[in-house]
Amino acid sequence: MTALPERYRDAVQFAFGDTPTLKDELLALVLAGKKTATCTALRDVKDAQEPMPEVGRRDVVLDGAGKPAAVIETTEVTVRRFDEVDEAFARDEGEGDLSLEYWREGHEAYFARNGGFEPDMELICERFRLVETLGEYRNG
């Protein structure tokens, strides 16, 4: 198990995605500098009473096995409807062919299997930067 540096012991910890495989795939995009944005359903954060992302906050990203792998810092937070997400945000999510169409298909499926999908559902759209890698991920 990766020992978490003391400075991150109180940080929010999470993984991108909903399966171990997807978590590892999305983490790899972050580590490669291709993924600099993410989104989540506003309802999920409210229902779980999780903290809203905040500009300047640093979070620990976990891999598919739940091990700390990286630290990111939030640089922008907006709330917008699913059908208001634009091409630039879809590209910054770094997935697939980077198109809005690919983003919409993938995220509609993701939200459908994780609580339900509606075209006008509110999303927390977050941009971030990679601060550092941890443990076995440190040297790529």
Short description:
This protein has 140 residues and is α+β, with helices and mostly antiparallel strands. It has helices at 20-31, 42-48, 87-93, 100-113, and strands at residues 13-14, 37-41, 58-62, 68-81, 122-133. Strand 3 (58-62) and strand 4 (68-81) form a beta hairpin.
Topology:
Layout: E1 13-14, H1 20-31, E2 37-41, H2 42-48, E3 58-62, E4 68-81, H3 87-93, H4 100-113, E5 122-133
Parallel strand pairs: 1-3
Antiparallel strand pairs: 2-5, 3-4, 4-5
Helix pairs in contact: 3-4
Describe the structure.
The structure is a single chain. With 140 residues, this protein is an alpha+beta fold. It has a single domain, classed as Sulfate adenylyltransferase, CATH 3.10.400. The protein is built from 4 helices and 5 strands; from the N terminus they run βαβαββααβ. The protein has helices at 20-31, 42-48, 87-93, 100-113; strands at residues 13-14, 37-41, 58-62, 68-81, 122-133. Strands 1-3-4-5-2 form a 5-stranded mixed β-sheet. Strand 3 and strand 4 form a beta hairpin. Helix 3 (87-93) crosses helix 4 (100-113). The model has no long low-confidence stretch (mean pLDDT 94).
Tags for this model:
4 helices; 5-stranded mixed beta sheet; PUA-like_sf; alpha+beta; ASCH_domain; ASCH domain protein; Sulfate adenylyltransferase; DUF984; globular
Radius of gyration: 15 Å
| Number of separate domains | 1
The best one-word shape is globular
CATH H-tier superfamily: Sulfate adenylyltransferase
Strand order of the largest sheet: 1-3-4-5-2
The CATH class name reads Alpha Beta
If helices are DSSP runs of H or I spanning 4 or more residues, what is the number of helices? 4
**Helix percentage range:** 25-40%
The averaged pLDDT comes out at 94
Return the string of H and E elements.
EHEHEEHHE
Q: Do you know the CATH architecture?
A: Roll
Secondary structural class: alpha+beta
The major β-sheet equals: 5 strands, mixed
Look up the CATH topology. Sulfate adenylyltransferase
Uncertain regions spanning at least 5 consecutive residues: none
Please report which band the strand proportion falls in: under 5%, 5-15%, 15-25%, 25-35%, 35-45% or over 45%. Answer: 25-35%
What is the number of beta strands?
A: 5
The N- to C-terminal Cα distance equals: 17 Å
